[in-house]
Amino acid sequence: MTSSTIAAPSIGAWSMLGTSAAASVMARIGADWLVLDAQHGLYDDRSVVESLALLTAGGMAETTHVRVPHNSASWIGRALDAGARGVIVPMVQNAEQARVAADACRYAPAGTRSWGPMAAYWGGTVPTAEASNARVQCAVMVETPQAIADVEAIAAVPGVDMVFVGPFDLAIALGTTVEALLADTSADSPLDRVVAACTAAGIVPGSFAGSIPIATALVARGFRSVAVAVDTAILTQHGGELVQQARRAAESA
Ligand code: 3PY
Ligand code: MG
Fold it and tell me: Following CA atoms 181, 102, 22, 60 in sequence, which dihedral angle do they give, to the nearest 10 degrees?
């Protein structure tokens, strides 16, 4: 009997809380990768560096990525210098912007990154420029109709390793809801177009999910890397559940 196997999707953790303690806790929940969110989360330059110093010393920076606040070569360079495996660049609108992000991740001649591997000071190894270029991961976020319209060219940019959907921004920009976006199976469905573009370019389609229903729907649509466990949501949901359970237990005691 022959069997075909599809690789299991890669499941991500996402930290908003902006401290090295939060990053350290989230790095230990068993996810395949962790994102420190400096766009909407509380991470700033200092807490990104402090978190990566701690994660590097603990051997966990290899799977840690930083969502930078915007498509900035200096932000990208500093996150990588501190030891991040890669970056997630929000609101990339077209192939030219994707090229700028990919170039910022790599040293010459492949790109424009400047040398300053700070991670060596907190226990990281210093790879050669060539080795660093080969291992860095550059994910670009598509989260507007303009980006979807150019997604084939974005996915084909050399050095773009993942196209990562922001379903919440994309739904807002399309004047719809995340649920409707996920339910859209029409011929010009934005989500299917992203998956097809990534498949054609030989790269991984990823997406933020933030919940099990959204993650399940995305994986069913072909997304291979989804961010599910967000520290702020975990605290709010599970903290709230624990309080309710304690109240019910106390009432029936
Ligand atoms: C989005 O869904 O727009 C995101 O950027 C998730 O953080
Ligand atoms: Mg977004």
Answer: 120
Q: Which domain holds residue 88?
A: 10-252
Which CATH number characterizes residue 165's domain?
3.20.20.60
Counting ligands in written order, which one lies closest to the CA of residue 168? 1
Atom of ligand 1 nearest to the CA of 14: 7
Q: Total domain count for the chain?
A: 1
214 part of a folded domain: yes
- Residues with a CB atom less than 6 Å from ligand 1: 143, 166-169, 208
Q: In this structure, is residue 203 part of a structural domain?
A: yes
Is residue 2 situated within a structural domain?
no
**Tens digit of each residue's pLDDT (9 = 90 or more) over 141-190:** 999 999 999 999 999 999 999 999 999 999 999 999 999 999 999 999 99
Residues recognised as catalytic: 40
| 3-state per-residue secondary structure call for 211-245 | CHHHHHHHHHCCCCEEEEEEHHHHHHHHHHHHHHH
Does residue 62 form part of some domain? yes
Residue identifier of the C-alpha nearest atom 6 of ligand 1:
166
